[in-house]
Write a structure and sequence with these properties.
- The protein is of the alpha+beta class.
- Helix content is about 35%, strand content about 15%.
- The longest helix is centred in the middle third of the chain and has 14 residues.
- The protein has three helices and three strands.
- It is globular and about 30 Å long.
- Strands 2-1-3 form a three-stranded antiparallel sheet.
- The chain has a domain of about 70 residues: Ribosomal Protein L30, Chain: A.
- Helix 1 packs across helix 2 and helix 1 packs antiparallel against helix 3.
């Protein structure tokens, strides 16, 4: 994975806006992250996507937190791969399809 220090503006919504002193209604929030359904999405390292590109696409594809995306991106860069999502086969195929849009090699496989 290549480090690229270009100035890039990324606009993403990580969580619903919450006014100070007001807690969100947890029943109305979508907190699903997949999981436990037997399939995983594995992302492999390459030499052309930047950290920011990978972090951004992981958040977009999986709905994970910024911290989780940063950890998974580090794993891809330093370990050669990272399991970035757990879920059902159809959901994992959807997630992998989004990640592939920026040229990353992705595999969907049974756990």
């Amino acid at each position: 994975m290549t480090l690229n220090f270009e100035f890039v503006t990324i606009s993403m919504t990580l969580a619903p806006a919450v006014r100070p002193g007001v807690l969100p209604d947890l029943e109305e929030m979508d907190t699903s992250r997949g999981g436990g359904e037997g399939w995983v999405v594995v992302v492999y390292n390459n030499d052309h996507n930047t950290y920011l590109e990978v972090i951004s696409i992981l958040i977009q594809a999986t709905g994970c937190t910024l911290d989780e995306a940063e950890i998974e991106t580090w794993e891809v860069d330093h370990l050669g791969q990272s399991t970035v999502h757990h879920g059902g086969q159809e959901e994992c195929e959807r997630v992998a399809g989004v990640i592939r849009t920026i040229g990353i090699q992705v595999e969907v496989k049974e756990e």
